[in-house]
Each structure stands twice: as C-alpha cells, then as structure tokens.
C-alpha cells in the first residue's frame, strides 16, 4: 500500500508540475499579447536592463509575476482536484496543510 501511495504521489508531483508549466506558458503568451495591445510595444525582454524605464520594468514585473503565479496556482489546484477525484483523497503533499478552520488554534486573549 505504501508503494502504491508513493507511486501516486510521484504521479501527482509530475502531473501538477506539467500543469503548472503549461499554465505559465499560456499565461505568458496571453500577457505578451495583452501588453502589446495596451502599450503598443513589446514587453521588456529583461526588466533588469537599465535601458528599460523603471516604471515600465516595475509594471511588467508586477503584472507578469501576478498573472503567471495565479495561473500556476490554478493549474496546480486543478491537478489536485483531478487527483482527489481519481483516488478518493488529496495528494499526500496537501493532506495536512493546516488550513482547516475548525482545527486552527484559538486566538490568544
């Protein structure tokens, strides 16, 4: 049983990684198109380059980091949902995350 759980855990890890990478690639492509439509120019290839204006570099970093991070998180959640529906339980990496409010420690007074 432990071998089967270890095997399914490795499957989830690989599946969620592929989903996250795919989601990041799709988000980046959408972001590049949106940036060109909104600004009329290509997004900065390297925001750390001093030739890129600071406001543009900061905006690109904030928007791209947020969008790609959210896309990866959504893809990983989707992979976890698929895994849970397939196996009847969450992947071992997500089973004890401390997010259950009823098990949270009471605030100190």
Characterise this structure.
Keywords: Membrane, Transmembrane, Transmembrane helix. With 109 residues, the chain is mostly helical. The protein has three helices and no strands. It has one domain. Helix content is 70%, strand content 0%. Helix 1 runs antiparallel to helix 2. The mean pLDDT is 85.
DSSP strand tally = 0
The largest β sheet comes out as: none
What is the percentage of strand-forming residues?
Answer: under 5%
Form type:
elongated
Counted by DSSP, the helix tally is 3
Span between termini: 45 Å
Mean pLDDT: 85
**Helical fraction:** 55-70%
Q: Provide the structure class.
A: mainly alpha
H-E order: HHH
Rg, rounded, reads 20 Å
Q: How many domains, as an integer?
A: 1
**Low confidence ranges:** none
List keywords for this structure.
109 residues; mainly alpha; single chain
Helix and strand arrangement:
Layout: H1 2-39, H2 54-87, H3 92-95
Describe, in short, the structure shown.
By secondary structure, the chain is mainly α. Helix content is 70%, strand content 0%.
């Amino acid at each position: 049983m432990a071998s089967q759980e270890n095997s399914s855990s490795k499957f989830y890890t690989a599946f969620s990684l592929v989903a996250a990478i795919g989601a990041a690639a799709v988000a980046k492509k959408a972001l590049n198109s949106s940036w060109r439509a909104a600004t009329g120019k290509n997004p900065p290839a390297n925001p750390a380059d001093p030739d890129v204006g600071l406001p543009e570099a900061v905006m690109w970093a904030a928007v791209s980091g947020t969008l790609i991070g959210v896309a990866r998180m959504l893809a990983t959640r989707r992979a976890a949902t698929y895994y849970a529906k397939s196996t009847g339980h969450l992947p071992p990496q997500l089973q004890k995350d401390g997010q259950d409010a009823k098990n949270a420690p009471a605030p100190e007074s």
